[in-house]
């Protein structure tokens, strides 16, 4: 009997030894994998200075989501913290997410072809957004759907203010086609969209506004930022602003479900010097965020990596706050995506400065090289008067040809009107364009600017649309 017991004891000891060796091997493999990830993707773990986002019951938080799912991907933790603090929360969706040609064949086993089928996608995605919002603790009264064209917000901001409404290429609608929308039937123009946002902001009076950052690659996300900035400027509101990012190639890392990993900002945020603000999530809150993302079921099959955003932190970016007094080198960095800045063969901007005086607005651009006489550059200049009324302010389209002493200026809202002239001066590779007050509509609180090389050239480049504030002169 004792021999049998000794045998059992010996086998048990051997099993424990084997288990210990296996555990050691697994731990070593995990450590090696972690070391590999840290070496391969240093931006994911590099230390940064971050400020914690804090909210109280006195706050009113407005989250703006370009599509159904962005609010869950980027802001689930923030929404949970706001509700826990007793703050009021509203989530506003700019579009219904109806321009979805990948998800339906996989999820609903139906490939959309007709406008009615695409509108049906919009209805279903709005329902998914409601389901996700309820997971986060929001009620139906906290949700606002506008339903403007998915994939069309950038075109609307740049080209469709008070003219013929924008017609969606998938729903074939020129007015908002969804009964769930608070503005159902509204003609799809930039003026109407801006007015809709301003009405929400006027009634809710947010103390915190959350929306996409300009380094996000998706045009709808970029346009959402522009509409939000325009609305805040028009209404002269100054809430705390938190900006988020969803679409950046190769980000985040690791591109998989990693609930015990900290989130981090895209590399461009560090290059541009954008301050980071963070929300810390408990394991339970990460679980709620994961379920909220999963509620957007039609998006999970084609984009299974959406759960990669369910991490133990959420990182937001503070606004760039570029003004006419910002360093000219720093301002220039915001126009062109980082992967283009080092391309010396293109006329990328080296410095950008602004002078706003009684004589008008002067923009000075130091280019990477001199433009020859066969080249031209386009600028889209949208000024915001100090009195507001951005929607009805001029939307200027400027064409400058290399070496010319003037540039042609036309108003996009009056395309048949004869172009007028802006003065141009040169100093080496620096081009200075002066727009008198008659062109810009008077003294400004800021302006939107996009720069293009082209059109129709092989080396076409297009900048981001950047907001630059004008600091009032001290009398």
From TrEMBL:
The chain crosses the membrane at residues 21-41. GO terms for molecular function: hydrolase activity, acting on carbon-nitrogen (but not peptide) bonds, in linear amides. The keyword tRNA processing does not apply. Pfam families: PIG-L. Keywords: Membrane, Transmembrane, Transmembrane helix. InterPro entries: GlcNAc_PI_deacetylase-related, LmbE-like_dom_sf. The keyword Kinase does not apply. This is PIG-L family deacetylase. The lineage of its organism: Bacteria, Pseudomonadati, Caldisericota/Cryosericota group, Candidatus Cryosericota, Candidatus Cryosericia.
């Amino acid at each position: 009997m004792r021999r049998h017991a000794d045998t059992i004891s010996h086998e048990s000891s051997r099993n424990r030894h084997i288990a210990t060796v296996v555990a050691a091997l697994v731990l070593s493999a995990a450590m090696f994998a972690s070391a590999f990830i840290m070496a391969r993707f240093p931006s994911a773990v590099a230390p940064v200075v971050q400020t914690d986002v804090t909210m109280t019951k006195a706050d009113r938080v407005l989250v703006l989501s370009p599509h159904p799912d962005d609010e869950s991907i980027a802001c689930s933790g923030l929404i949970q913290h706001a509700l826990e603090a007793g703050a009021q929360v509203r989530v506003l969706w700019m579009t219904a997410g109806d321009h979805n040609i990948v998800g339906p064949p996989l999820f609903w086993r139906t490939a959309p072809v007709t406008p009615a089928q695409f509108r049906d996608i919009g209805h279903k995605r709005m329902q998914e957004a409601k389901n996700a919002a309820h997971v986060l603790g929001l009620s139906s009264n906290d949700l606002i759907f506008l339903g403007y064209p998915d994939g069309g917000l950038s075109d609307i901001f740049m080209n469709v203010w008070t003219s013929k409404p924008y017609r969606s290429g998938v729903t074939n609608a020129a007015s908002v086609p969804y009964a769930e929308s608070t503005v159902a039937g509204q003609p799809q123009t930039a003026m109407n969209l801006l007015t809709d946002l301003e009405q929400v902001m006027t009634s809710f009076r947010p103390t915190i506004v959350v929306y996409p950052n300009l380094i996000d690659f998706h045009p709808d996300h970029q346009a959402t930022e522009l509409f939000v900035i325009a609305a805040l400027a028009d209404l002269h509101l100054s809430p705390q602003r938190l900006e988020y990012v969803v679409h950046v190639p190769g980000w985040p890392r690791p591109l998989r479900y990693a609930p015990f990993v900290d989130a981090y900002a895209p590399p461009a945020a560090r290059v541009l010097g954008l301050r980071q603000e963070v929300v810390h999530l408990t394991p339970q809150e990460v679980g709620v965020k994961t379920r909220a993302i999963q509620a957007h079921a039609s998006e999970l099959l084609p984009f299974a990596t959406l759960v990669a955003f369910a991490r133990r932190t959420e990182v937001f970016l503070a606004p760039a706050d570029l003004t006419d007094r910002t360093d000219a080198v720093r301002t220039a960095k915001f126009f062109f995506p980082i992967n283009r800045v080092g391309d010396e063969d293109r006329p990328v901007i080296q410095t950008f400065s602004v002078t706003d005086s009684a004589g008008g607005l002067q923009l000075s651009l130091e280019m990477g090289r001199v433009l020859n006489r066969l080249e031209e550059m386009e600028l889209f200049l949208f000024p915001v008067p100090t009195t507001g009324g951005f929607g009805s302010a001029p939307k200027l389209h400027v064409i400058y040809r290399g070496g010319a002493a003037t540039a042609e200026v036309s108003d996009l809202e009056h395309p048949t009107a004869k172009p007028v002239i802006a003065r141009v001066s040169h100093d080496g590779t620096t081009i200075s364009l002066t727009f008198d007050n008659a062109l810009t509509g008077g003294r400004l609180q800021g302006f939107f600017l996009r720069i293009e090389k082209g059109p129709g050239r092989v080396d076409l480049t297009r900048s981001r649309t950047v907001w630059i504030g004008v600091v009032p002169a001290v009398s």
